[in-house]
Design goal:
- The longest helix is centred in the middle third of the chain and has 14 residues.
- About 20% of the residues are buried.
- With about 325 residues, this protein is α+β, with helices and mostly antiparallel strands.
- Helix content is about 25%, strand content about 40%.
- The chain folds into 2 domains: about 70 residues, Membrane-bound Lytic Murein Transglycosylase D, Chain A (Roll), CATH 3.10.350; about 230 residues, Roll (Lipovitellin-phosvitin complex, beta-sheet shell regions).
């Protein structure tokens, strides 16, 4: 047995964590079994008083019970990936804001995303992905050109591994074979020199598979939907990495208790956050049946050159 003199700010939680005791209930029970009646722990710890701590052997005995709340199956869900036959549509909403010297600029837009499973071959799942019904509050001619250019390529092919992680994105062979006609039609719709310059750059990306793959992997829907969030949980937590705006984020997620037999609720935050560092929070609803996302809402914020940026991204099954 060990003795600890309680300091201001001490809690059963942080003391249990320091000595490696998983279930803090045993810390309170152990102390109350060995202390005088007047030193029983009833509420908060009282600074200056003694706290009796179990020794290493006793701690191991307690931990071997595996009764810590964070070890419950509900808080350590196994999220599989079984997309066979999947064919769903989602409403995607993106809200962006920037703040410089107290002046805020906001922009929002939405679209409908369609995701259809096609086949499983050689350990890879093939999906077809389409965007449609764009709504942009600040629509310009160039934004319209960008939207129409991408719409001309859909559906695109998305290849995913057996864990639900994106492998590569490619155009269908028919789209590549017909690209000259696609480009000509776009030039007819947008007959000015700036459109011509844009479409030449667009053509360069389209006809270079590696560049197209890299560009499409920056798509917020694809990188969120086919991230590594299905990695195994241990002790109530799961960890994965994801790039947002070319920044690698180390994300920690926990499962939330729910009475639903059909859904798993996940809460995501940065693994570690320091002052003035990027910030990220996410809430995800996943189907227990197939491991596919039903809804998602994330907020990503960062600061660059004294300007604060924020993006809120949401996916809602419709």
């Amino acid at each position: 047995m060990m003795i600890h003199f309680i300091l201001p700010g001490d809690t059963l939680e942080n003391i249990a964590e320091k000595i490696g005791l998983e279930n803090l209930v045993h810390l309170k029970d152990f102390h109350n079994q060995h202390c005088l009646k007047e030193d029983l722990i009833v509420g908060d710890l009282i600074p200056g008083k003694k706290l009796f701590l179990p020794d290493l052997a006793k701690i191991k005995e307690y931990n071997d019970k595996n009764d810590a709340p964070f070890k419950s199956p509900e808080l350590n869900p196994k999220i599989g990936f079984d997309p066979i036959g999947f064919n769903e549509k989602f409403k995607i909403t993106i809200k962006e804001s920037s703040n410089a010297e107290g002046k805020t600029v906001e922009k929002s837009f939405s679209y409908i995303a369609s995701l259809q499973w096609i086949k499983n071959e050689l350990g890879e799942h093939l999906f077809q992905f389409t965007k449609d019904q764009f709504s942009n509050q600040n629509e310009t001619k160039m934004e319209s050109l960008a939207i129409e250019s991408m719409k001309s390529l859909y559906p695109i092919e998305v290849f995913v591994n057996t864990k639900g992680e994106i492998l590569r994105v490619a155009l269908k062979k028919e789209t590549l074979n017909n690209f000259n006609q696609i480009k000509k039609k776009l030039l007819d719709f947008f007959p000015d020199k700036y459109a011509k310059i844009y479409l030449e750059e667009f053509e360069y990306v389209v006809l270079n598979p590696d560049i197209f793959d890299q560009k499409m992997k920056e798509d917020w829907f694809l990188k969120n939907y086919f991230s590594s969030f299905r990695d195994p949980f241990e002790n109530g937590k799961s960890f994965f990495e994801m790039y947002l705006d070319k920044t690698l984020l180390n994300i920690q997620q926990t499962a939330k208790l729910t009475d639903s037999k059909e859904e798993i609720l996940l809460h995501q935050t940065l693994k570690s956050k320091e002052e003035n560092q990027n910030d990220f929070t996410g809430n995800v609803t996943v189907s227990k049946n197939n491991g596919m996302i039903k809804s998602l809402n994330t907020i990503y914020a960062y600061k660059e050159f004294s300007v604060s940026y924020s993006t809120e991204f949401s996916i809602e099954n419709i």
